[in-house]
Amino acid sequence: MPELPEVETVARSLEKGQGSEAGILNQKIIKAEVDWAKSVATPSLRLFKSRIKNQRVLRVGRRAKYIHIQLSEDALLVHLRMSGDLLIGRQPEDLGKYSRLRIYFDSGQILSFNDARKFGRVWLIKDPSEIYAGLGPEPLGKDLSNDDFYLALQKRKRQLKPLLLDQSFIAGIGNIYADEALHAAQLHPLSIANQLTRADADRLLQSIRVVLEEAIRRNGSSIDWSYKGGEFQNQFAVYQKTGEECPRCGEKILRIVVGQRGTHFCKNCQALL
Predict the structure, then answer these.
(1) Active site residue 255
(2) CA nearest to 90, candidates 80, 78, 76, 102
(3) Longest C-alpha distance within the chain, in Å?
(4) Is 3 labeled as catalytic in the residue annotation?
(5) Is 198 a catalytic residue?
(6) How many CA atoms lie within 13 A of 60 on its CB side?
(7) What angle do CA 51, 56, 62 make, to 5 degrees?
(8) One of 2, 139, 162, 189 is an active-site residue; which one?
(9) Domain end: 101, 132, 163, which one?
(10) Are 39 and 77 a contacting pair, CB within 8 Å?
(11) Do 114 and 162 belong to one domain?
(12) Is residue 271 part of a domain?
């Protein structure tokens, strides 16, 4: 599943453009076509098509793992889930083999929601806070201070790895970047959150930010057929590196299952206290 860096990369490509195609800012929507009705979570398909028509794209951004396209009257939210992508083009061959939904602009451009596994969802909604309710703070946001992060950890008697994947605790982190951040912070994935010292907490937040920012700089990670174009997979320290040497100490990387998720770590650098 695309995580924060991949979703951020897609959002920026919609704003700035993809390849030879310009971005979608300020463009007016003339119609929408939907081939897979379940792609639209809300409103009804009929209302979706009628309401989106003639709206203009004002902004493109991201909240957690949602792409937020702010229109003149509504917010268009997209969650890519396992295999979704958003492509800009003008011809059928530009729109992906699994185009489930297409938005046509007055410029002649088409925004395609390409989704092989059909798990992705789109919302057209007046108030996006209805969808965002319950999400934790953005890890790269200025509103998340070291004090806030430490206090949040102190309130939770949970293992670090599943806690970092909990979108109500901190938004946007998935399996890849949890493993990489914990390794960078030299913390075991099974460590208990409220047992971390203030220095541990500060180091973890800093590691999360460094890892995410570098991944965004490299357009995210390309790890399977569903998301391509990123380069951060070439920088992985532990994720999917089972049996390889830790780049910090040379110990063999181990893989365990935590909360039904494959988890990669170095038992030497990330000793369980």
Answers:
(1) no
(2) 102
(3) 60
(4) yes
(5) no
(6) 20
(7) 95
(8) 2
(9) 132
(10) no
(11) no
(12) no
Domain end among 73, 99, 132? 132
Using CA atoms, how far residue 73 sits from 29, 55, 59, 69, 176, in Å, is 12, 7, 12, 11, 36
Is 65 among the catalytic positions?
A: yes
Residues 106 and 185 in one domain: no
Q: What does each of the 273 residues of the chain score in pLDDT, given as a tens digit?
A: 799 999 999 999 999 999 999 999 999 999 999 999 999 999 999 999 999 999 999 999 999 999 999 999 999 999 999 899 999 999 999 999 999 999 999 999 999 999 999 999 999 999 999 999 999 999 999 999 999 999 999 999 999 999 999 999 999 999 999 999 999 999 999 999 999 999 999 999 999 999 999 999 999 998 765 667 799 999 999 999 999 999 999 999 999 999 999 999 999 999 997
The residue segments making up the domain with residue 198 are 146-266
Contact 145, 201 (CB under 8 A): no
Secondary structure percentages of the chain, helix, strand, coil, to 5: 30, 25, 40
Closest CA to 162 of 261, 272, 267, 271: 261
- Given phi > 0 = left and psi -120 to 50 = alpha, else beta, which region is 30? alpha
CA distances from 149 to 195, 211, 244 (A): 13, 17, 32
Candidate list 12, 81, 156, 261, residue with the active-site label: 261
Catalytically annotated residue among 63, 65, 100, 241: 65
139 inside domain: no
Q: Establish if 205 belongs to a structural domain.
A: yes
CA 31 – CA 240 distance, rounded (Å): 43
Residue of 3, 6, 8, 180 marked active site? 3
The count of domains in the chain is 2
CATH number of the CATH domain containing 246: 1.10.8.50
Tokens of 152: 């949040």
* Distance, CA of 167 to chain centre: 11
